[in-house]
Amino acid sequence: MAHVKLHIPGPVEVSEKTFRAFCSPMIGHRGQGFKDLYAGIEPRLQTLLCTKQLVYLGTSSAWGVMEGAIRNLVARKVLNCMCGAFSDKWFDVSRRCAKQTEALQVPWGSPIRAEEVDKRLATGQFDALTLIHNETSTGTMSPLAELAALKKKYPDVMFIVDAVSSMSALPIPFDEFGIDVLLAGTQKVFDLPYGLAVLVCSSASLSKVATLKVLRY
Description:
This protein is of the alpha/beta class. About 35% of the residues lie in helices and about 20% in strands.
């Protein structure tokens, strides 16, 4: 097959070194070899995301984690911050998960502003919000530090952040920002094949999951 050079946001070109690694013999995913591999990856991911929390690898696309976060962290109502194709779709996902949801819609190409989010959260209706840090469809980046600062004002609202096209390209200090779920797929800035998700969860989000009676496996 002829080499096709990709000029799209993702999946991106994967290096020859990465391709060679995929030619390694399989190891058992319940064996010591996998435990050793994961143990070597974990601290480096924690350093990358500036967190003491465990960083998880999910065997799905980023959308699998996005849907899982909605299903497991929204008990009352979710505010979907929408500024492009991917963030707009989160509103559809929330409705398909039978969650009460409200759209904070801005024109495509415009960022999500903390002032507007503050107004919506001040109503007390919401226990979660979704935000895409860098909206891939328009190349628009929202001011994550300013938005995350609202977490101190609304500590009971779960902040769910998609960083698919920014994680590892920009510093995102998870613990400092107080985000509850930060997620990405590997097919963009990580320069890896698709089909793997990276996510980190706050202690507050894990505690909330433990209190919900209706969960998905």
